[in-house]
């Protein structure tokens, strides 16, 4: 069986005041056309269909258009679960009716994990649910964190699993390998819970032949290829600019697994460029860009000037200022009370300008405060 594993569409996403809907539409329509040549048997969407619980109507229209085309034009079943960004109840509206068309949407946690058999493969749909909700739903006070919650939910189907068949779990969460966590999160991922209570150890999934995960935006495996994140379809933050976005085509039989990355060129890339202002003003691009300026002095109205050549500029920072601030002394209230006015000004100047105030400058500052009668 050949399965497309995708996740984290985040339809309706806005990044730095830019709506990503045009980019998402372009990507998903290109994906469908590409899949027509790939002879796949099923599609998995492992959570975060939308970027927020109340998505804009344009995002809902795009979701409906995409999922309908996948089912009708590709003629394959589509399995969708809710992620932590989705509204569990809203996403599964009319789910029973849609299942008749082989669109299986699981939004809310049930007392037992939903199983959908298809061509000798069992698909287990585990939508995201906070551990507090799972504890109340299962009436199990021993559930203290996300790992406990997932363990308890898996227990509801363990006795009925047939190890001679292909068993695939679709889930959304933060899965790690205990003692060897090499996961790579991104800035645009919303924490699932406080501290380390969001982590789930990969050992819980050993009975499955493949685990299709959503939540982390970089495509990556956890311990081995049997447990994978497909990553988000597009870049959604500066920290994701180094990513090479992809979905995965999974070819699976019992005791046989192959992963084929599928890359779709986006409408616009998202990149980070480090250069001087004068060099940047020589170029132009329609991509989404984050600028890291190497200039030691501030450039007046730099962002507006850059946007004349880069209309989708998303952010700007001065590298020298950032590096200076990262090592600057952070004075507490008592420290500040001990500093003289000239020293306070010197601290402020050096952090703001990202350059040292030289002796001549310090003398001028001291003279000014002296003239004001403020030496200490």
Give the helices and strands, then pairings.
Elements: E1 2-6, E2 14-15, E3 18-19, H1 21-35, E4 42-45, H2 57-74, E5 78-81, H3 88-91, H4 95-99, E6 103-106, E7 114-118, E8 121-126, H5 131-138, H6 146-158, E9 166-172, E10 174-176, E11 199-201, E12 210-214, E13 220-222, E14 224-229, E15 247-253, E16 256-262, E17 270-275, H7 277-280, E18 288-293, H8 302-307, E19 313-318, H9 319-327, H10 333-338, H11 341-353, H12 359-371
Parallel strand pairs: 1-4, 4-5, 5-6, 8-9, 9-12, 10-11, 12-14, 17-18, 18-19
Antiparallel strand pairs: 1-15, 2-3, 7-8, 13-14, 15-16
Helix pairs in contact: 1-2, 5-6, 11-12
Which segments are poorly predicted (pLDDT under 50) over 5 or more consecutive residues? 324-334
Number of strands: 19
| Structural domain tally | 3
CATH architecture identity of the largest domain: 4-Layer Sandwich
Proportion of β residues?
15-25%
Spatially, the strands of the biggest sheet line up as: 6-5-4-1-15-16
| CATH topology category name of the largest domain | Purple Acid Phosphatase, chain A, domain 2
Q: Gyration radius, to the nearest Å?
A: 26 Å
Tertiary shape: elongated
Ends distance: 77 Å
Mean pLDDT: 89
Name given to the CATH homologous superfamily of the largest domain = Metallo-dependent phosphatases
Q: Largest sheet, described in full?
A: 6 strands, mixed
Helix content: 25-40%
SS-derived structural category? alpha/beta
The number of helical runs is: 12
């Amino acid at each position: 069986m050949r399965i497309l594993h995708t996740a984290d569409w985040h339809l309706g996403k806005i990044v730095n005041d830019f709506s990503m809907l045009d980019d998402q539409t372009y990507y998903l329509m290109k994906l469908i056309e590409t899949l027509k040549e790939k002879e796949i048997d099923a599609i998995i969407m492992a959570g975060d269909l939308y970027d927020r619980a109340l998505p804009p109507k344009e995002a809902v229209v795009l979701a409906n258009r995409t999922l309908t085309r996948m089912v009708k034009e590709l003629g394959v079943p589509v399995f969708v679960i809710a992620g932590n960004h989705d509204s569990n109840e809203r996403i599964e509206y009319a789910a029973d009716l849609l299942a008749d068309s082989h669109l299986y949407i699981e939004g809310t946690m049930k007392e037992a994990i939903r199983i959908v058999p298809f061509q000798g493969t069992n698909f287990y749909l585990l939508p995201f649910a906070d551990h507090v909700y799972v504890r109340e739903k299962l009436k199990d006070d021993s559930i203290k964190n996300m790992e406990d919650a997932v363990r308890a939910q898996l227990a509801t189907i363990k006795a009925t699993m047939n190890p001679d068949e292909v068993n695939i779990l679709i889930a959304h969460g933060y899965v790690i390998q205990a003692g060897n966590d090499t996961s790579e999160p991104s800035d645009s991922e919303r924490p699932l819970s406080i501290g380390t209570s969001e982590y789930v150890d990969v050992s819980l999934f050993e009975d499955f032949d493949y685990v299709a995960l959503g939540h982390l935006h970089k495509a990556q495996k956890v311990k081995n290829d049997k447990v994978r994140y497909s990553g988000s379809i597009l870049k959604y933050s500066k920290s994701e600019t180094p990513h090479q976005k992809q979905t995965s085509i999974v070819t699976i039989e019992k005791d046989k697994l192959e992963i084929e990355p599928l890359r779709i060129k986006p409408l616009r890339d998202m990149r980070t460029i480090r250069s001087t202002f004068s060099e940047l003003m020589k170029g132009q691009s329609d991509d989404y860009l984050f600028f890291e300026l190497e200039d030691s002095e501030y450039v007046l109205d730099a962002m507006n000037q850059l946007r004349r050549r880069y209309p989708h500029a998303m952010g700007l920072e001065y590298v020298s200022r950032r590096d200076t601030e990262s090592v600057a002394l952070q004075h507490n209230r008592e420290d500040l009370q001990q500093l003289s006015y000239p020293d306070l000004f010197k601290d402020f100047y050096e952090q703001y300008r990202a350059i040292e105030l030289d002796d001549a400058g310090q003398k001028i500052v001291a003279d000014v405060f002296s003239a004001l009668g403020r030496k200490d």
